[in-house]
Amino acid sequence: MQPVGIGVVGAGGFGAFAMSAFREMPEVRVVAVQDADPARARAAAEAYGAKFCETYEDLLAVPEVDVVYLATPPAHHGPAALRALEAGRHVWVEKPFALTPEEAEAVMRLARERGLRVGTNYVLRFNPIYRLARELLQSGVLGELREMTLENCATDEPLPPDHWFWDLQVSGGIFVEHGVHFFDIAGVLSGAQGEWTYSQVWARPPRGNLDRVLAVTRYGSIPAVFYHSFDRPYRVERTEFRLACDLGDITVHGWMPLALTLEGAVDREGLARLEEVAARPALEMGSGRRAPVQATLAFLDGYEGEARRCQGRWMDREVTHRVRLTLACREEKMVVYGRAIQAGAADFARAVRDPGYQPAVTPEAILASLRIAHDAATRAVRLV
Predict the structure, then answer these.
(1) Distance from the CA of 344 to the CA of which of 208, 250, 319, 383 falls in 20 to 30 A?
(2) What are 148-176's pLDDT values in tens digits?
(3) Report field, pTM of the whole predicted structure over 0.90
(4) What distance in Å separates the CA atoms of residue 97 and residue 319, rounded to the nearest whole number?
(5) Alpha helices of the chain — where are they, by DSSP H?
(6) Active site residues
(7) Cβ distance 251 to 239 under 8 Å?
(8) Who contacts 301 (Cβ-Cβ below 8 Å, separation ≥6)?
(9) Over the stretch 182-233, which tens digit does the pLDDT of each residue have?
């Protein structure tokens, strides 16, 4: 099949990274590039054998553009998506899909009316570590999922005080610009739709930049707490997503995760499942992509006879071992990141080609995560 033609809007840092991922894909091809900086767009177009477009209208007029990919600041997403749909183009958007749920609903409504596809680059859904975490939760190897806690301590080194990231009218703030990723993946992990409960934000003196935020949410009966800060040097960034279950914990390490730790008590069936996971040479990412991994399964304790009996939530259980599974990708972060973009783009390209295909990231899922993010941002208690 002919590759789906992508018109890239935004050739800055992330747009350039995405284009480098697209170049290695048979499913898509960059056919046009436009940017607020014409020189940057021209250079990217020349590098990828694409058409240079001086204006957005020029890009929408290129016949080979099947999908408009928006890699611009968030405030641009909603209006630009509407214009693309009006021009008969499918739209794939960097997160967040829009600044508000109302804006997103308007885009989705027009897409339905025109019979066009819309999606967003929720790259964590295609990350191999998160996909394994979901598999482990669904297997019940540690019982039921009971609570989720995210700590995302990120760097502000590339974010000077006047960067658009800090402008709430442009980015929507940390919850909207960044947090939607994690609100969405929490829904994937829990299998439930999330709902905002409480949030607070901290302002950094003297300019009042909101650099630390916290949200309490629930996914069905599962509470989830999300803490984000953008205030650290790059070398000490840390992101951990802990999934607390009946019989232990699964911890996902990294913003673009490369490692996972499981520690808990298991029965013989659970042990056999973990042994199979530990023996895998690679993990699936979707759309035919895989990530090489290496794993270690350590035995922390063994139980015999009556010692196998334990209780939690007033339920009698029997376990045979306490174990720790550690698993890590064998490739560097940006390699895994790029392949996750490829898996997501290939999935969306398939949806463009096949009207009957249900993409991994649905409009309903996009709207659900954006609603939580918007509620968290607009209803937060502000602290200094």
Answers:
(1) 250
(2) 999 999 999 999 999 999 999 999 999 99
(3) yes
(4) 45
(5) 13-23, 38-48, 56-60, 77-86, 101-114, 128-139, 168-171, 174, 180-190, 268-278, 333-353, 363-378
(6) 95
(7) no
(8) 321, 322
(9) 999 999 999 999 999 999 999 999 999 999 999 999 999 999 999 999 999 9
